[in-house]
Amino acid sequence: MNIQLIDEFVLDWKLSGKAAASVDAYAKDLAEFFTQTPEPCLTSTKAWLNQTPFTSRRRKKAQAIRAFSVWAAEHAISGFEWWRQVPIAKEKQLPQSTATKDDYVKVIKRTKSARDKAIIETLWSTGLRRSELCALLAEDIDFLAGFVLVRTSKTGKPRIVPLSPSAKRAIRAHLQGRKTESVFGITPNGVRLLLQRLEAPSAHAWRRGWAVHALRNGVSETSVRAAAGWSSGAMVARYTRTLSGELAIEEFQRSWV
């Protein structure tokens, strides 16, 4: 019975507009959980979680059980009333690398080709994930309106992301005279190797840097979330946690001018 409920839980999650990738990962953990624990209770749930040695995986599994239990309660499905007592493992938050404007200026100077320059400009301008960058097609770029269309993001939904004037110029220069569907013709691993060759921050560091730079320059959190494809402010908070004090000071200073 519990296994059958997983499919309904997944469908409701996706229909509500929440991240498809998250619930797909939850579904795998829940399938394992209900297979090994056909009649779950708090004690058996804790025992199942304790079998996983890695903190990050225990945390994800506990989140899956909690999310499913909340859904079950909303649909009057009994048997999971103990979900609030399921422990969520705490992960040590390590400092995350964040690309800065100085990084951007230095790396741009190191680029040797129009394509490499266009990739860096796009990362700094849009905060695209590596997979999204590599999937860009020429028809996805609206140079007149100044945005790129991300057809499929992590949430499974398309979104548009503003494109800076310098990024537009760089992409135009790269595409000049080319007849190609793919804008960059590169794989995610190719992007990783390119950034290593340029001694540049990782693509994820560029994404964090893009978010922080936008907030510092007065872009609203709502707009950052929309452009990044985040369904809540949790990721914004995660990306800017270590810089939240600086951001608050700068925002107040702008309000006093």
Name a few traits of the molecule:
mainly alpha, 2 domains, DNA polymerase, domain 1, 13 helices, hpI Integrase, Chain A
CATH class of the largest domain: Mainly Alpha
Q: How large a portion of the residues is in β-strands, by DSSP E?
A: under 5%
Structural class: mainly alpha
How far apart the termini lie comes to 62 Å
Mean pLDDT: 88
Low-confidence stretches: none
> What do we call the CATH topology of the largest domain?
hpI Integrase, Chain A
Strand order across the largest sheet: 1-2-3
Shape: elongated
Fourth-level CATH superfamily of the largest domain: Intergrase catalytic core
The domain count comes to 2
Helix percent band: 55-70%
> Helix and strand string, N-terminal first?
HHHHHHHEEEHHHHHH
Task: Identify the CATH architecture of the largest domain.
Answer: Orthogonal Bundle
Q: Determine the number of helices (DSSP H or I, runs of at least 4 residues).
A: 13
How is the main sheet built? 3 strands, antiparallel
Radius of gyration: 22 Å
